[in-house]
UniProtKB/TrEMBL annotation, chain A:
EC class: transferase
Reaction(s) catalysed (UniProt annotation): RX + glutathione = an S-substituted glutathione + a halide anion + H(+)
Protein name as it appears in the record: Glutathione S-transferase
Record PROSITE patterns: GST_CTER, GST_NTER
A GO cellular component entry from the record: cytosol
Record-level Gene Ontology MF annotations: glutathione transferase activity
EC assignment: 2.5.1.18
Subcellular location: Cytoplasm, Cytosol
Keywords per UniProt: Cytoplasm, Transferase
Keyword Cytoplasm included in the entry's annotation: yes
Domain GST C-terminal residue range list: 88-208
Organism: Flemingia macrophylla
Xref: InterPro entries: Glutathione-S-Trfase_C-like, Glutathione-S-Trfase_C_sf, Glutathione_S-Trfase, Glutathione_S-Trfase_N, GST_C_Tau, Omega/Tau-like, Thioredoxin-like_sf
From TrEMBL, chain B:
SUPFAM superfamilies listed in its UniProt record: GST C-terminal domain-like, Thioredoxin-like
EC number, as in UniProt: 2.5.1.18
Name of the protein: glutathione transferase
Keywords in alphabetical order: Transferase
Lineage, opening ranks: Eukaryota, Viridiplantae, Streptophyta, Embryophyta, Tracheophyta
Catalytic activity: RX + glutathione = an S-substituted glutathione + a halide anion + H(+)
A molecular function GO annotation: glutathione transferase activity
Organism listed in the record: Flemingia macrophylla
Domain GST C-terminal as annotated: residue spans: 90-218
TM regions (residue ranges): none
Keyword Transferase on entry: yes
The UniProt record lists the keyword Electron transport: no
Domain annotation GST N-terminal: ranges: 5-84
């Protein structure tokens, strides 16, 4: 029985990118469906009636929502290929902790950087850089957050790189000069096909953010 | 060997997140040492074990810390997997359980906090959001005795601690959860029949008194 896998997504979403990377890592064939977030499809509304958000993974007709939950689901079902989470409970808990940290910090602070101005923006930039430095510390001398192998935390975090040009331009700062180790890690990840084929061009994301800013009325 | 290693839980009396960890440990029959944290004067141990967020609960197993309540519950479930599993073994149902536990964190918690902290229009919006989130959980519960199905499980653990805060929300917000979500109250009473729950949840009146006190001290009107 062939598996039917569908991904409801929106191309600049870092959350969607997480699932794209995971499916690629596991070598899973799937149908990608681009959603227009201003005109959500009946399939999306039916598959995620609670949050009405992308990404949604649909496996043999059954929807799984929330990106990190979907990544763990894929890991559970396709457990024999390329494990992404440590098998040891303690290290697994640590991986979950850091992925949760990415959710709590990177997305919200990044968003504040391109939507705010003045003091609020300065505070967001400072906190954002601190968060990346903390992640750098956590990475240490490892090749990936997962150690020798690309894993769960790498997947949770690397998609945000595509938004860095937007953050840097609107925030007027340079992430590489603040966090060189972080950028070195990103470059290592980009050498993996599962990553490079799943991430959009940061220039395109930047242009998208320019459009959004116009639309929501930020100068 | 694992079962003999020391287990220590740093928590705080009225924290629903700490209660999740306590219920999970009790369900599994794990002996542990409990340390009450004064959140206005955090212990060096807490700051060392959770340097990132400096929050409770923190589970310290054999000297190693695990932070974030749902991560702690999953860790407990994985390490002591043979006693009373909390997460379903089926991948899809496991994902559903994680989804709804995350829903409690994303929706129920934040709305509930606004109910007792805010006033006027803001409070009305918070009440509406809070009750809406409970109704959505009721919908997911359906006719099952527990969110875990026939047995008490992960989502039940995630949600039941909020029950001892209902009196606080209802008093500040001037509403009754039972009038809007009777099935959920039936579910809560069913959970309270379990020793792991009844021995863990704080008394609703004590929670209320503590919140009144907290508001007087830290939140200016």
């Amino acid at each position: 029985m062939a598996d039917e896998v569908v991904l409801l997504d929106f191309w600049p979403s870092p959350f969607g990118m997480r699932i794209r990377i995971t499916l690629a890592e596991k070598g899973i064939k799937y149908e990608y469906k681009e959603e227009d977030l201003r005109n959500k499809s009946p399939l999306l509304l039916q598959s995620n009636p609670v949050h009405k958000k992308i990404p949604v993974l649909i496996h043999n007709g059954k929807p799984i929502c929330e990106s990190l939950i979907a990544v763990q689901y894929i890991e559970d079902v396709w457990s024999n290929r390329n494990p992404l989470l440590p098998s040891d409970p303690y290290h697994r808990a640590q991986a979950r902790f850091w992925a949760d940290y990415v959710d709590k910090k990177v997305y919200d602070l990044g968003r504040k950087i391109w939507t705010s101005k003045g003091e609020e923006q300065e505070a967001a930039k400072k906190e954002f850089v601190e968060a990346l430095k903390l992640l750098e510390e956590q990475l240490g001398d490892k090749t990936y957050f997962g150690g020798d192998n690309f894993g769960f935390v790498d997947i949770a975090l690397v998609p945000f790189y595509t938004w860095f040009k937007a953050y840097e331009t609107f925030g007027n700062f340079n992430i590489e000069s603040e966090c060189p180790k972080f950028i070195a890690w990103v470059k290592r990840c980009l050498q993996k096909e599962s990553v490079s084929k799943s991430l959009p061009d940061p220039h395109k994301v930047y242009e998208f953010v320019v459009e959004i800013r116009k639309r929501i009325g930020i100068e | 060997m694992v079962e003999e290693a020391k287990v220590l839980l740093l928590g705080s009396r009225f924290s629903m997140f700490g209660m999740r960890a306590k219920i999970a440990l009790a369900e599994k029959g794990i002996k542990y040492e409990y340390m009450e944290e004064d959140l206005t004067n955090k212990s060096p141990l807490l700051q060392e074990m959770n340097p990132i967020h400096k929050k409770i609960p923190v589970l310290i197993h054999d000297g190693r810390p695990i932070c974030e309540s749902l991560i702690i519950v999953e860790y407990i479930d994985m390490v002591w997997h043979s006693n009373y599993p909390l997460l379903p073994s089926d991948s899809y149902h496991k994902a559903q359980a994680r989804f709804w536990a995350d829903f409690v964190d994303q929706k129920v918690y934040h709305a509930s906090k606004r109910v007792w902290i805010s006033e006027g229009d803001e409070q009305e919006v918070a009440k509406k959001d809070f009750l809406q989130s409970l109704k959505q959980l009721e919908w997911f519960l359906g006719d099952k005795p527990y969110f875990g199905g026939d047995t008490f499980g992960f989502v039940d653990v995630a949600l039941i601690p909020f029950y001892c805060w209902f009196y606080t929300y209802e008093t500040f917000g001037n509403f009754k959860v039972e009038e809007v979500c009777p099935k959920l109250i039936s579910w809560a009473k069913r959970c309270m029949q379990k020793e792991s729950v009844s021995e863990t949840l704080a008394d609703g009146n004590d929670v209320y008194e503590a919140v009144v006190d907290y508001k007087k001290k830290f939140i200016s009107n």
